[in-house]
Amino acid sequence: MGQRKSKRASCRAGRPALQSPGRPPGWRREHKQLFWGAIGRGLSSEEAAAVASMSPAVGARWFREGGGMSTVSAAPLSDRYLSFNEREEIAILHAQDHGVREIARRLCRSPSTISRELRRNAATRSGGFAYRATTAQWHADRRAKRPKVAKLAANEALRDYVQERLTGTLKAPNGAVVRGPKTRWKGRRHGRRQDRKWATAWSPEQISNRLHLDYPNDETMRVSHEAIYQALYVQGRGKGIVSSEIMISERPAEAEDRAVPGHWEGDLILGLESSAIGTLVERSTRFTILMHLPRMVGHGDLPRAKNGPALAGHGAEAVRDAITVAIINLPDQLRRSLTWDQGVEMAQHAQLRVDTGLPIYFCDPQSPWQRGTNENTNGLLRQYFPKGTDLSRHSVDDLASVATVLNSRPRKALGWRTPAEVLNDHIPTARETNVATTG
């Protein structure tokens, strides 16, 4: 009688075998970096594949899938992440039955990092947990891919469960729906105490922990309270208007040292009853342009509508048109860039760039010092437009007069010359450059 084979650990535990996401590929992130680096040096896909120690067919597929553009960052991996070499060391030491703390000590890593690595990135094709360096690296790379589909967006049942407990209607003991008091949207700012919309209003933490009781055997019905908060934040702010390519870090270095004119900073100064004036300041000359933003027809007469047009006069469309009118007649050499904060009034920045040819860059959140010239000028303008006053009563001529006064004021930073004098010195040069390039 033959010897009976021992059961797998998963079978002995009484749980089903773990599902495997598939097999890891025969390449790693470093191979793709070598491949795209060779492509950048002008090699063909076959030659670049040889540099990366890959077959020509793989190189051709990478080039085709990427559309000729690199699909990985050329920057080295941060030290905060485990490298492939470290994962090989973990696999060897783990196979030698070394404990988590001993492995962490040898790699100079936190024990929690090693424990999480062994738990999250283990191979599961055998039905249990077997740690292999290549598989662990594949799991880590696959998990790091961006953008990811949000869990609440992909799982409809989970999304409905969360939404019902966040904003679901109240029900009486007999099952009838209780509407509660009528409420009207009155803008962002809180006014007097008023009725609020009635809802179930569970907290994200309550929802996250209750899922374990309501669905004890369904692992798909799990979501952390941080993920719920993140979904609420994204929904509340709407579609973002800023991408990494137009952040201030990507602005030309010449704008930072003020050596070349034509780099502008912009903002709004706000007054009573949502009135506003737009300001543009050139970084090199400190020349100031004030933009008139009158209220639109219907302001104060029609009830405010959520997501409706900005009747106050400083919505995205109004600000776009005002900036276009203000700078469109400047020479091209004086229209190099515009830096703004991440306000919703710049939601149409892409169309503004098309209309004016002016590159737009945005400051980091809550970083007004990155527009220091504009912030300083706004402080000077408060001498003429104090806070708490209605700025809509000022006409175009009023704004032009104030701008003239500021542009005619000597500045220490300019060697006691005025912004108008310094800008006038650049205008002939800019026009000569335009003639030379178009002639």
Q: Can you give a write-up of this model?
A:
By secondary structure, the chain is an alpha/beta fold. It has three domains: 14-143, no CATH class; 151-183 and 195-237, no CATH class; 244-301 and 308-438, Nucleotidyltransferase, domain 5 (2-Layer Sandwich), CATH 3.30.420.10. It has helices spanning 9-12, 29-40, 45-51, 56-65, 84-95, 100-107, 111-120, 133-143, 151-154, 156-167, 204-214, 225-237, 253-256, 316-327, 349-356, 372-381, 396-407, 419-438; strands spanning 170-171, 177-178, 263-270, 276-282, 288-292, 337-340, 360-362. The strands form two sheets. It has a five-stranded mixed beta sheet with strand order 5-4-3-6-7, with helices on both faces. It has a two-stranded antiparallel ribbon with strand order 1-2. α11 (204-214) crosses α12 and α14 runs parallel beside α15. The relative contact order is 0.07. Mean pLDDT is 79; it is low at 1-15, 235-241 and 432-439.
List the helices and strands and how they pair.
Elements: H1 9-12, H2 29-40, H3 45-51, H4 56-65, H5 84-95, H6 100-107, H7 111-120, H8 133-143, H9 151-154, H10 156-167, E1 170-171, E2 177-178, H11 204-214, H12 225-237, H13 253-256, E3 263-270, E4 276-282, E5 288-292, H14 316-327, E6 337-340, H15 349-356, E7 360-362, H16 372-381, H17 396-407, H18 419-438
Parallel strand pairs: 3-6, 6-7
Antiparallel strand pairs: 1-2, 3-4, 4-5
